[in-house]
Amino acid sequence: MQTKRTIFGNKGLPYLLLAPQIIITCIFFLWPAAQAVRTSFLREDAFGLNFTFVGWRNYTRLLDSPEYLNALKVTVIFSVSTVILALGVSLILALAVDRMIRSGRAYTTLLVWPYAVAPAVAGILWWFIFNPTIGIMPYILENWFGYDWNHLLTPSDAMILVVIAAAWKQISYNFLFFLAGLQSIPNSLREAAAIDGAGPFKRFWTITLPLLSPTTFFLLVVNIVYTLFETFAVIDATTEGGPAQATNILVYKVFRDGFVGLNFGSSAAQSVILMGLVIVLTVIQFRFVERRVTY
């Protein structure tokens, strides 16, 4: 098979075509990242006019801070819970829609709609639903199950609320990829397994799930990044990190310390640590988890 190659008559044309993307990356990613690294070694005043080089002091103070270690623990619990809930529910919905013949498109359209909702709006919607005074869910939980729901006072209730709100926002995205992955699996494989006597669970575990592993691995990486960076608006709209720092994840603490507390050095150091944490997690996933992916 002969491979075709594109040859540019002008050697500068490829660089010209790449220039817009390179410029955007430098302005909106590389330059802010470099500024964050620089600021993390400084102590600035509230207006950013005077600064003092303090070296690694911002980092050492963070590692010795009980509040920061608590935010790290809260982030782990929040991220793991949100990823498991979002992936699990979206996979179940995709399996249900994949079995439908006539109404599959209608259900797909309805399930995709929540993805168009902004994270802040999603947080406010679930805040209203679980509001202890006017929400429908606290009323149902108290009258049907005898549980007194109050996410304003109970840390576990607050964590459950933010996990549900963040996962609900991401389910539509995961659902689309899972459904596409399911529809790309040949029906002949599952039919052959059914003829051999394999039940629905065994067919799913031995055929469907291994063939979905590339999609699952991709969504795992995307969802982890989502929980670490894009859930700020959900936290801010529902609990604002409370009660008693029970939902104060790392990205929200960066905002609170930097924009509210005006401690730019500590906030920048937290940003650098968070960025490094995401890079390490991504490398680990591609280095070890990808080995179990069946392409």
TrEMBL record:
Entry keyword Cytoplasm: no
Domain of life: Bacteria
Localisation: Cell inner membrane; Cell membrane
Location (main, coarse): membrane
Assembly and binders: The complex is composed of two ATP-binding proteins (UgpC), two transmembrane proteins (UgpA and UgpE) and a solute-binding protein (UgpB).
Summary of the function given for this chain in its UniProt record: Part of the ABC transporter complex UgpBAEC involved in sn-glycerol-3-phosphate (G3P) import. Probably responsible for the translocation of the substrate across the membrane.
Family as reported in the entry's similarity comment: Belongs to the binding-protein-dependent transport system permease family.
Name of this protein: sn-glycerol-3-phosphate transport system permease protein UgpA
The organism's taxonomic lineage, starting at the top: Bacteria, Pseudomonadati, Pseudomonadota, Alphaproteobacteria, Rhodobacterales
